[in-house]
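re: that chain from earlier
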Amino acid sequence: MKITKSIFKLFLLSLVFTACNDETAEIPEVSGRYDNGLIVSAEGAFGNKDGSISYVNNDLNRLATNFMYTGVNNAQLGGLVQSIAFTDTEAYVVLNDVNTIVVVDRFTFKKVTEIRTGLSNPRYMAFANGKGYVTNWGSGSDTTDDYLAVIDVSTNTIESTKISLDNGVERIVAKNSKLYVSHKGAFTSNNIISVVDVSANNAVAKIIVKDNPDELLFDVAGNLIVLSEGRPLSYGGAPDYAVLTSTTSSISFINVNDNTVTKEITFNDNERATQLSYNNGNVYYYMGSEKTVFSINESDTMLATDGISTGSIYGMAVKDNNLYTVSYNFTSLSKLIVTDLSSKQEIYTSPVGLGASKIYFN
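^ sequence. v structure.
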């Protein structure tokens, strides 16, 4: 695929953006390897098929290397980057709008192959027992066509067997031969976590949580933590269309040995969280109404009252003592900001791709 003028202009804009904000900043890093750092995926502008990937080294001493897939492969990814999943050696870039997964070398991002069959509105991917499992919405408005596509990662081919699940499959994580799938509801709503036992003929169990569960992760003890955003009931106006009223949002803690919800911390009426991260016994969540990231200890039973002001963000992650956020921006390049959790001071900033949404540590 030809590198378009718009992509080249965005790259030039990233340099201008940096020069205007820091006259002493280092130039972007050019590297043959993209490990020992973080990967930022950007959706791009919907419909333009211009999703991109950026890299920042762990030392945070250089600007992000933007459009790195394009630089390595002399081609665009060619779609909206929904998410990336990693094996020990490869990265699977899920392109939602073109029903494609681009497989690349995890460390060089050199393209290995593409998976273009058996996918329909793919969202997220996880690995278990030598296979990859991809959540698929289907049409999005059809509540009966959601499924997990199964990929043989030794050949990177889709298997004929699909695992049908309830409406609105979204995030997926794996532990001990079981897959845990949140059902955000696609274009409607749902309130379950599906548990798929891949070692027991893909038997499915269900856990009831609050409406629109999205992000889910494991704590150090192996418990599952789930963020339910609540079902939006009314919206504000353009350009953000912020949720004004919603059903109850919550953070649930689940014992995966018996699939019971052992603790549920709920938000006040019409208050909701939309981002979740976990590090060293602490749970971090973002509330868009306050444009703030809060944190609680995993043993707490109440929400926090003080946090770190971040502005409007579209993705976040926490590692060691740093908070990583990407700004919500679909009209110009997003910004990656790293904040020291102790001092609450910004220690790094760099332009990244348009519509940046996910942060991974590689």
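The domain at 217-351 is CATH 2.130.10.10 (Methylamine Dehydrogenase; Chain H).
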